[in-house]
Design brief:
The protein has 452 residues and is of the alpha/beta class. It is 31% helix and 22% strand. α3 packs parallel to α5.
Length: 452
């Protein structure tokens, strides 16, 4: 493993235009829908990262024809109107949750198919039982588990969808419900009941269904999703534009808050599909301002030294990928914060609650860890004292990332703050290459903002 990466502080206000990579969540959903549509679809502004490349490889292994161009950020895929070419395949999902869940539901379409799934060691521990049980209840698949029941690796014998009803336990991840919403309606009308689910992530899936010609589900207050039989079609132009990644944007929103200045992000509309747009509301309390234009966002914070402070309790259940961004900069926000609604993040790339508690504690912050929450009492003076102590010993404070991209990017924002007032690094990030999962160029982009 490479040495930890020192983070060079930014010693001035932000003044830049930032082009973000495409959304991973949208790219992988759009790939599924394009494969299920009739005819060729071109995805513009697609993300090329570890997770999307795993999806591309798997679709290729299933027999789909794809043409990729990383330079132009385009992917062309020939959809087969609900058919899957190969009746047998080995599918490796790595630690990509969207790939693992979406493709498991996807291959169940092909009655008589046999598909062998596996992932890395972390994926073998991640929850998928809610999806597997729903597939069995719908009569769409049966499973042979090779190590631990209801976990990877397994062999899926597909039976095809014929409609019907199922109770879907998606408490561990809304991707479980989304996987079924994408694929199950092609076999017949279906009713999926999933009461305890994070609505903004499901709304993202439903938005894409509509873009590919499907009627949205009727949703009851009891959490019933009723879908008529579907047939997907490519958008009229044959092109689908992927939104910039608003979870990736969260790091640069936070950076603008603590540095001051302004940041322009092109290609963002006023009503994006991604629920993580709501992270702006979290930071607006502290003084970050947003000016939405027709195809551009401008965020600004003129007075970083006057960041609004005060105890807060914030429910991150609808934007849980961004809680790490906020927690990482909490030592600079002055007052205690209670971050709630994040119990499911214990079962993501790593146990994110435990990991964040450990890293903030290592930086001298007082942290109370609960089952689904973190209570953080910021200690900026202790952070500074530990940074000085490490510097005097010829070292830097170092953050563990647990092979989790969001730890690396979140703490890189904290490290960009000139804590010691001398413009020299005080924080280093272990395993920065883990950002390849969703944002391979993150550290290059961060570096560009120092010189812009």
């Amino acid at each position: 493993m490479l040495d930890p990466l020192p983070i060079q502080p930014i010693c001035r206000k932000i003044d830049a235009t930032l082009t973000l990579p495409g959304s991973k969540s949208i790219t992988n959903r759009a790939l599924i829908l394009a494969a299920l549509s009739a005819g060729r679809t071109r995805l513009d502004g697609a993300l090329f990262s570890r997770d999307t490349k795993i999806m591309l490889t798997a679709l290729g292994d299933l027999g789909f024809k794809l043409v990729t161009n990383e330079a132009s950020l385009t992917i062309e895929i020939d959809g087969l109107d609900g058919a899957i070419p190969n009746n047998e395949a080995v599918i490796y999902v790595g630690n990509a949750g969207t790939v693992a869940r979406f493709l498991t539901a996807f291959v169940a379409l092909n009655a008589g198919g046999i598909y062998h799934f596996d992932g890395d060691s972390a994926m073998r521990e991640r929850p998928i039982s809610g999806l597997l049980q729903a597939l069995v209840d719908l009569g769409a698949a049966e499973f042979e588990f090779h190590k631990k029941r209801d976990h990877f690796p397994f062999t899926l014998k597909s039976k095809g969808y014929q409609g019907g009803e199922a109770l879907v336990d998606a408490r561990a991840s809304s991707q479980i419900l989304s996987a079924l919403l994408l694929s199950a309606p092609l076999g017949g009308a279906v009713k999926l009941t999933s009461a305890d689910v994070r609505p903004h992530y499901v709304a993202l899936t439903i938005g894409l269904l509509k873009s590919f010609g499907a009627a949205p589900p009727d949703i009851s207050q009891a959490g019933e999703y009723a879908l008529s039989i579907a047939r997907y079609t490519a958008p009229n132009s044959g092109h689908y534009a992927i939104e910039p990644d608003l979870t990736a944007a969260s790091y640069f929103f936070a950076l603008t808050l603590i540095q001051g200045g302004s940041l322009r992000i092109p290609n963002l509309c006023q009503k994006p599909l991604q629920g993580d747009a709501l992270f702006i509301d979290v930071l607006s309390y502290h003084g970050l301002c947003l000016n939405m234009k027709e195809d551009e966002w401008l965020v600004s914070c003129k007075f970083p030294n006057g960041i609004q402070k005060g105890h807060r309790e914030i429910d991150f259940s609808n934007i849980s990928d961004t809680f790490l961004t906020y927690a990482a900069i909490s030592p600079l926000l002055g007052e205690s914060v209670s971050i709630t609604g994040i119990s499911h993040t214990r079962y993501q790339e790593t146990d994110r609650i435990k990991g964040m508690a450990e890293e903030l504690s290592r930086l001298g912050q007082l942290v109370k860890e609960e089952k689904g929450a973190l209570i953080i009492d910021p200690k900026p003076r202790e952070l500074r004292a530990r940074a000085l102590q490490a510097r005097e010993a010829g070292n830097l404070l170092t953050v563990e990332t647990y092979k989790d991209h969001r730890f690396a990017m979140s703490f890189a924002v904290l490290g960009s703050y000139d804590l010691l007032g001398d413009g020299k690094p005080w924080l280093a990030i272990k395993d920065p290459s883990c950002c390849a999962k969703t944002f391979p160029e993150f550290f290059k982009v961060l570096e560009s903002l120092r010189d812009a």
